[in-house]
């Protein structure tokens, strides 16, 4: 009886010499530099604008010259609700009473004459008849009212940053139409850096107030922190 035959299976390993070879240090360095450059490029591509804020509820209260033209309820010269009541309601009645016009023509007829004067006054001081400077002043007042920490506050970091943001947006709109205005471009750059400086001070003073201010101004940290180049 013959002895059992032992089968020996042989496995061939086909390994490429290129795959096993170590990469040259120069090649590794080149690849690492390429990855780093790609990361830097992606970082710069996704970097938010230093000038234009993202959408935020605060900006819904502001006007452009075009939107102001269609508004008939907003007025120049920082009129408060009390001022409007006095000018458009109280003062006409007092004028009629003092002139005794009501006794001659009747109260209703006398008030019609005063109402014509009121409507004329409303047109004169209405924001819709104001120029771009008047619209900017109105927007600045809205910024003060929105960000003030107490009545009469005009100097807190939040108010200063908000006012600068309004001025930055206004000047940027101007520069979009007048691209050769070098002087105002320098002014824009100065205001952007000034706002960043104020926000840096606020960050060092109170981190929570800083975060809230950025959120309400529609600004990201990367837009106001670190190196700012325009």
What does this structure look like?
The chain has 230 residues and is mostly helical. 65% of the residues lie in helices and 0% in strands. It contains eleven helices and no strands. Helix 4 runs antiparallel to helix 6 (107-125), helix 8 runs parallel beside helix 10 (207-217) and helix 9 (182-205) packs antiparallel against helix 10 (207-217). The longest helix has 24 residues, at 182-205. It is elongated. The termini are far apart. The model has no long low-confidence stretch (mean pLDDT 85).
Helix content: 55-70%
Overall radius of gyration: 34 Å
Largest sheet: none
Structural class: mainly alpha
Work out the oligomeric state of the chains in this entry.
single chain
> Mean of residue pLDDT?
85
Family: Belongs to the universal ribosomal protein uS15 family.
Organism: Phycomyces blakesleeanus
Protein name: Ribosomal protein S15
Keywords: Ribonucleoprotein, Ribosomal protein
Describe the structure using short key phrases.
230 residues, ribonucleoprotein, Ribosomal protein S15, Ribosomal_uS15_bac-type, Ribosomal_uS15, ribosomal protein
């Amino acid at each position: 009886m013959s002895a059992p035959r032992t089968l020996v299976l042989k496995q061939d390993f086909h390994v490429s010499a290129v795959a096993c070879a170590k990469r040259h240090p120069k090649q590794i360095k080149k690849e690492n530099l390429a990855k780093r450059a790609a990361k830097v490029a992606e970082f710069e591509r996704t970097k938010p604008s230093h000038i234009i804020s993202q959408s935020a509820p605060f900006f819904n209260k502001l006007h452009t010259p075009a939107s102001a033209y269609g508004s008939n309820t907003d007025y120049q010269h920082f009129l408060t609700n009390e001022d409007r009541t006095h000018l458009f309601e109280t003062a006409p009645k007092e004028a009629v009473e003092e002139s005794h016009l009501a006794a001659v023509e009747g109260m209703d007829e006398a008030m019609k004459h005063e109402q014509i004067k009121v409507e004329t006054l409303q047109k004169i001081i209405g924001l819709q008849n104001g120029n771009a400077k008047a619209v900017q002043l109105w927007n600045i007042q809205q910024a003060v009212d929105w960000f003030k920490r107490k009545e009469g506050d005009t100097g807190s970091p939040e108010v200063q940053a908000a006012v600068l943001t309004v001025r930055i947006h206004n000047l940027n709109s101007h520069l979009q139409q007048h691209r050769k205005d070098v002087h105002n471009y320098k002014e824009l750059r100065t205001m952007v850096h000034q706002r960043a400086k104020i926000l840096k001070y606020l960050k060092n003073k109170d981190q929570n107030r800083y975060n809230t201010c950025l959120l309400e101004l529609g600004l990201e940290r990367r837009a106001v922190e670190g190196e700012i180049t325009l």
